[in-house]
Amino acid sequence: MNLSEIIDKIKELKAEKNAVILAHYYTRPEVQDVADYLGDSLGLARQAEKTNADIIVFCGVHFMAETASIISPDKKVLSPVLRAGCSLADSVTGDDLRRWKERNPDGLIVSYVNTSAEVKAWSDYCCTSSNALKVVRSLPNDRQILFVPDKHLGAYIQEVTGRDMELWNGACVVHAPITAEMVLRRLDDFPEADALIHPESACSRDPRVLRHPRAYMYSTAGIIRHAKESPKRQFIVATELETIHELSKQNPAKEFIPIHPDTYCDQMKKVTLPDVLSALEQERHEVRVPEETRRRAVIPIQRMLEIG
Ligand code: 13P
Ligand code: SF4
User: Fold this and answer.
1) Which ligand is nearest to the CA of 268?
2) Please, are residues 114 and 134 in contact by the beta-carbon 8 Å criterion?
3) Yes or no: is domain 89-171+296-307 CATH 3.40.50.10800?
């Protein structure tokens, strides 16, 4: 089958089976282009919550499909490839978190959505990079926050909110190499450009970046919104490379400069169009969370969705 036949067949099966395709901005461009909804972690979770489809084909990494299945247990959530992991989600287990909580009984556990269902089941609140500040600001001031697993996102939240936080020692292999020096050098090289930075980056709490008049810290959806709304013509993109696909599509006359050619998440690229087609044809690789874990994991996710 050639590419356009694969795309036609995907469309046909989607209609026949009342399926919807959700894809993250970091997936392959051709996968993004067949998606019914393209989004960041928060946007995708919201779509999974509200869709009327019977089948969700989730193109992203495993924890994202798992989150969709936790929110919408009555839907069949398919992950076109089962082994798409994430260095953040792999950095902490449910047992680790249970022990952390035992050592800090008064702390509130806020877990980034990049975690397994078992970790969410031990968490008090969930957050994504879109709503992390909002979630933390909503919590009582006298409670310490145990933030898991991304130390860079955690450091950013700590810096901006001034909250008493303990941070887990996890990091994203793609964003953590983005340093303040790298961002500042790019800003010097391109004096007209804004730098749009994901807070999983190592520069997330560096005052030289946070106070720079042309540097902005955003989730992926925030980066896309800024580029669209800004009158500027040039942007330094300090996040995963494939985000530039949607940025360029929405803003053909603007220029997007990658912070570094290595900001590439190979796990997000595992899903190909033939995988999407096979998932739909065979309804294979269903993602399901054991009901006992799911019932506990859905609580912090729902709290997050209610906060915003
Ligand atoms: P957002 O989708 O929340 O921007 O997070 C990025 C990410 O690393 C997903 O893996
Ligand atoms: Fe995980 Fe980082 Fe890849 Fe996102 S970009 S899926 S946080 S490894």
Assistant:
1) 2
2) no
3) yes
